[in-house]
Design a protein that fits this description.
This protein has 280 residues and is of the alpha+beta class. It is built from seven helices and twelve strands. It has three domains: 98 residues, no CATH class; 60 residues; 100 residues, abc- transporter (atp binding component) like domain (Coagulation Factor XIII, Chain A, domain 1, Distorted Sandwich), CATH 2.70.50.
């Protein structure tokens, strides 16, 4: 009998094998490590050659059933390699089927997995919708902060805190259509020929406070041609006690009185306009 070692061509594991195992199934064996079948004869390395025929082995083989029905004995592991068991090739179909056959899943398990995925998807969808709503509210608060603060004064403090984070401000609303000059007059000073007095009544017709506008006074000659023009900011024409930061409150009027020096100008008329500067 010839003993030796062979090499699994799939996992490169070497194990001991006997001549009887080689001839039992035309050299086909199964690796005990990777469970793959292969021909052990090409890589078989004999350890020693027995020149005397073993009559007892021949007698046992003649009396034994056909080789394909006998399970191969467990091969002795090589001391220099891993311990691997040689598995008969006759079990190839069963082992291969057992290796690759998927485990059956019960309908309850499949339904439970689908339900868990649906629950997870619904939760993620709700979180996404919630985040989008927050972003939409934040953008709306930024773009409509002036109108919100004007119509809902209670929201102005949180809007100011929000703008502090974004490095913005919440100015008073500006609507020149709701700000009107109810009356005005330009009077000469009898005691000083180079001085005139401008009197005007400014009214806020809105239902919320408005920012004070800029006054534009134009002096005209007797042919209605402009002689001089001057702009007055709120800080220049507001009477004592009025604040530019508070604005003109809703449905309120304010009297404006300005004394102006005209030098050698001889105005015969004037024009008084209101407007808001494009930038604060």
């Amino acid at each position: 009998m010839i003993n030796g070692t062979t090499l699994c061509i799939h996992c490169q594991t070497r194990f001991k094998i006997s001549d009887a195992q080689l001839t039992a199934h035309q050299g086909m064996v199964r690796c005990g490590h990777c469970l793959q079948a292969f021909d052990a004869r090409p890589n078989f390395i004999p350890e020693s050659v027995d020149t005397q025929p073993d009559l007892s082995d021949e007698a046992e083989q003649s009396a034994a059933p056909p080789a394909e029905k006998l399970p191969l004995p467990i091969a002795e592991p090589d001391s220099t390699d891993k311990v691997i068991t040689a598995i008969p090739a006759s079990r190839k179909q069963a082992l291969t089927y057992a290796k690759w056959r998927p485990l059956p899943r019960s309908p309850h398990a499949i339904g439970s997995t689908r339900d868990s995925h649906a629950v997870l998807f619904n939760r993620l969808s709700l979180i996404g919708v919630f985040v989008l709503i927050i972003i939409l509210l934040a953008q709306s608060a930024y773009f409509f902060r002036i109108s919100l603060a004007a119509h809902m004064p209670a929201l102005k403090p949180p809007l100011l805190a929000y703008c502090h984070l974004l490095n913005c401000n919440v100015p008073l609303p500006k609507n020149i259509d709701l700000m009107s000059m109810e009356s005005s007059s330009l009077d000469a000073d009898p005691a000083n020929a180079n001085q005139i007095t401008l009197n005007a009544l400014l009214r806020n017709r809105a239902s919320y406070p408005l920012a004070y506008p800029v006054l534009a006074l134009t002096l005209n000659d007797n042919q209605d041609r402009p002689l001089a023009r001057r702009l007055f900011l709120p800080s220049e024409y507001l009477p004592h006690g009025e604040s530019d930061s508070v604005g003109l409150k809703k449905n309120r009027e304010i009297n404006i009185k300005l004394r102006l020096r005209i030098a050698d100008l001889k105005p015969s008329g004037y024009r008084l306009e209101l407007f808001y500067a494009s930038k604060d």
